[in-house]
Amino acid sequence: MDAIEALYELAFPDLLFRAQAIHREHFDPSSVQRSTLLSIKTGGCPEDCAYCPQSVHFDTGVVASKLMSVEEVTEAAKAAKASGATRFCMGAAWRSPTQRDLERVGEMVQAVKGLGLETCVTLGMLERHQADDLKSCGLDYYNHNLDTSPEFYGEIISTRTYQDRLATLANVRDAGISVCCGGIVGMGESRRARAGLIAELANLEPYPESVPINQLVRVGGTPLGDLAPFDGFEFVRTIAVARITMPKAMVRLSAGRETMDEALQALCFLAGANSMFYGDRLLTTANPQVEKDEALFARLGLRAVPAEALARPR
């Protein structure tokens, strides 16, 4: 962790130069993969994650809903593809899915795959046999974030242990599903805690193929709703450190982009981000409008490409 914290301490130009050099070694720096995220089952989650508006422990105005139908999800995926997304991510607010729910999600995965999109789901904790079931349906990625460092984790969540999260990641990996795993910054953690998160991710064997870096979206009614805004340059540093320590991963700009101006987002791409959540909404919070993202891509000379087209040919 000391070596990763030392990266954070580098002068900003030196850190970005180092991250961009590594990025160019493995990827086309003007190509970005775009994912769309859909909440297929919203609210009513029994976990107490301090950042989450979907927790039953907090009064945030989120209304719990039932699992969407396969037909509704398929229509949303068609719209996402038409807008330029190449991966469709489905999230359900569960501690862990029941077998019946898992079967319905499997049908969604198959339907979305049939459209030619990459598939990703985040459903909470998984047993190995459940991961095997999702693999048999053709699931490409499973998202299960570590959220923060082991040392800071207890300040954010009490209903699920860090080891629970690692166990799910192991089950997903053993089933042959690619791992999407990252964290959240701006939750009141220290820079050392941010370095600890990156260390945990980078030391997974192998490290995740996809690493979403989220900036806390402050939602009224959650314990973290009144925190001060997070420093933008520190967010860019986190992107750069993730790129340096996980050189072949897709590093994704995730939650929190709605509050970032175009210059800050441009710095994130310069620091090695090559994936983003695309579409007007995430699970329950806003995301930049598609038209704004298209205009930003045009101004920066960025191209939207599927994941398999990101890597440089060897």
If you had to describe this structure to a student in words, what would you say it looks like?
- The chain is of the alpha/beta class.
- The protein has helices spanning 2-8, 12-26, 70-83, 99-113, 128-136, 150-153, 162-174, 191-202, 232-245, 262-270, 290-300, and strands at residues 31-41, 87-92, 118-122, 141-143, 178-180, 183-185, 210-215, 250-253, 275-277, 303-304.
- It starts with a helix and ends in a 10-residue tail after the last strand.
Helices and strands in order, then pairings?
Layout: H1 2-8, H2 12-26, E1 31-41, H3 70-83, E2 87-92, H4 99-113, E3 118-122, H5 128-136, E4 141-143, H6 150-153, H7 162-174, E5 178-180, E6 183-185, H8 191-202, E7 210-215, H9 232-245, E8 250-253, H10 262-270, E9 275-277, H11 290-300, E10 303-304
Parallel strand pairs: 1-2, 1-9, 1-10, 2-3, 3-4, 4-5, 6-7, 7-8, 8-9
Helix pairs in contact: 1-8, 2-9, 3-4, 5-7, 8-9
Please provide a brief summary of the model:
The chain has helices at residues 2-8, 12-26, 70-83, 99-113, 128-136, 150-153, 162-174, 191-202, 232-245, 262-270, 290-300; strands at 31-41, 87-92, 118-122, 141-143, 178-180, 183-185, 210-215, 250-253, 275-277, 303-304.
